[in-house]
Structure formats: structure tokens, C-alpha cells
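Thread: "does anyone have the structure for this chain?"

Original post by V.I.:
We have the sequence but no experimental structure in hand. Need at least a predicted one for the grant figures.
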Amino acid sequence: MVARIRVAPATSEMISGFVELSRTYYDTDAATATDPELVSWRHLEANLGPSTAVDLVEEDQVVGRMWVQHHLWSLRGLPAVGANPIDFLIREDHRRLPAFMSLFKAAMRVAEDEADLVYHSSNPLTDDLYRKLMKLKPVTELDGAVLPIRPFAAARAAKVVNLRGVGSAFDVIFAMWIRALGLLAQLTRVRLVGPPDSEQQASIVASFEREEAVSTQRSEPYRAWRFRGANGITYTTNWIQIGRRPAGYVVTTDRDVDGVLGRFIVDLVLPGRLGWLTRWSLWLQVAANAAKNRQHALFLFYNRQNERLAKRAGAPLVTVARHRLPQRIPVFVRVHARANTALVDGIDWGQGYFVLSDFDMF
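Reply from O.Q.:
Generated one for you, C-alpha cells below.
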């Protein structure tokens, strides 16, 4: 029987088919796509409503899918709707070129019809398909930066070095040094604090969006959904206070990536100018908190072409060569022909403010 394309708003009844297909490919202990609660959070509960399910169906069984999330973007401080096609997967016995082409083209048509722009990344499974077959060119690629906390433990997990005795002793001393520096950093004007009132939060986010030509909007409803997490996936939001003034926030999550215990900076909003002492103080305090939880390193993935992010990722963070990253993260952006030209004309998408929170990996 020939498989057909089915397009409909995602519902709770569709989650079982989504998870069943995921389990044909992913390790059930490692993949968020095999957890019904996490899938529901990502695709049913977003602040702009449920995703659009684009499924490849054969005899009422889902054999392929690409679901489309919707998020608001800020382009020169004005709102635009962005569509994010994610969770692409075709069952192994149906992985033929016609199936891929029909599913991919259908999902992209849906995304373009529902939004002003389409944006997404790729993974090792889809990257060649996007670049070589569909001739898509990324506007930029995320770079990685790291602040080591237990460097020998991280190197051992990554199978780079295996010095248990000397390495473990060094890690203990180094982590203690990071914690001590974090305490000293609290003597500066920078503090990690609880949330200010809603009006102050909105003012900070509005300032950030005015300063950045391209970013996703970070409204309170969006943040409440995006950083709530589900079923073991948790996020911590620390607001940044400089002197007596709330100045921004940083969001982190702890993950085990191939044995490396990382604290990942998922989002960072910090408008205005930032001196080197403020930057050092911020990252050392975040790293000191990670050291308490025995994390191996603090990681930031960011678009180095964005001037603000390039400065935020300076020392004490150290840039990681792209070929050493666990996964490349290209950024694809395409603008719908009907998009308001006042919004999109002349925008350099390669300089967009892109971090992990903009994508579905973390």
C-alpha cells in the first residue's frame, strides 16, 4: 500500500504513534522523543499552541513524520512568526528517496504557509539530505565554548585521556579552585538572584529585542513553557543583578552527553555593554554552582558571528574547535515570499542571536 501524507494539528491521541515510531530508531533510555510526557510538553503545550503534525501514514500506521513548532521572532524589534520543522524520522523499512522527498516537501510547505520564516537545524541523520539533496545552505553554524571544571573526568569520559589517580586528584583541586573563584566573584557588582517583578523582566527582554536585529522573542509565556521542562528534563533560571539593577538572566540545564557531565547554558539575555570583569564574574559564579553538583564542565553553544554573543563567550570561556564538538549545529533560515519586506529586507541572518534555546536539542 502506498503511504500518504497526513497534516493535522497535533493532539494527545497522536503522541502514541509519535513515540512508537521513535522507538524503532532511538535508544529508549537516551532519547526525549521516546518519552510521551516530553513529547507532549514540546508539541502540545507551547505558548503558541500545538505543533502541526506532518505524518507519513500507511494503513493508519505512522511510518514517517516531521512536526512543525511555531514561535514568535523579533526582527528589528517587530514580531514575526517562525516555523520550526523538527523531529524528522522515517521508519527504516520505508527510507526511500520518494518517501523522504514527499515528507520533507510537505512539511516545508506547511511551515511556509503557517509562518513568515522557516528555521531549523540538522543532525547527523539529516545533514547530508538537507545540504546535498535539497541544496539548503546554512546561514551560520553554532560554535562551542567551555569552562573546564573537572577536565580529566571530561577527557576520560570522552576517551581522550585516562589518568585516574593523578587526574582525579587534579580534578578535585581544580574544582575547588573554581568554587573559590566563584566566591571571590561574588565580591564584584554581579549577583545571581531570584526573579525580579514581571514589569522589570519585560523591560529587560524588550531592551534585548530592540538591540538585536534577529532573535526569537522571549516573552514571559514563552519562557514559562520553554524552561519548564518535563519528566527529568529540568532548567534553572538565574537572574543577573549588576549593582542594584536587574540586568538579565541565564538559563542552564545539566546533561550527560556520552559520559561527559555538562552544565549547558541554554539561554542568555543580557542587554547593554558588558565589561570583562562582569563577564568573568558571571561565568565563574555559574561554573562554581556547577562544581557543587560535580559537573565536568560548563558549555555554551552560540553564533560567533553575532557580536554580542562573541563578546559574551570570551574568557574565562575557551572556544572549542568545531570538529571536536559532539554534534555540528548549522542554522537554516528561509523567508516566506509573502513576508513583510519592512521586516526582512537587508537582514543579515548570519548575525542572528542564536543559542541552544532556539532549537529542539536541549
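V.I.: this helps a lot. The first helix runs from residue 15 to 22.
O.Q.: and The first strand starts at residue 4 and ends at 9.
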